[in-house]
Amino acid sequence: MEKKDKRVFAFDRVNFILLGIGVAVVLLGMVLMSGGRSDTEHFNPEIFSTLRIRIAPLVCLFGYLFMIYAIVRRPRPQEGDK
Question: How many angstroms separate the CA atoms of 7 and 61, rounded?
């Protein structure tokens, strides 16, 4: 007699939560990169700040890596599943 797998989805609840956290971190990095602008009459030196040039892209990179982990992570089998 064949035993069928009861799982319908490849992700479980934890995968979706981790994916949501990763998306939130990427959005935070994008918000940190945005900000003031320079126009033809006024130069804004804030466009070259450390926050926008170095920290925000690293936050985005961490978010993307976290999302990759959330996708690759395997759900643990339930006690009833074997």
Answer: 32
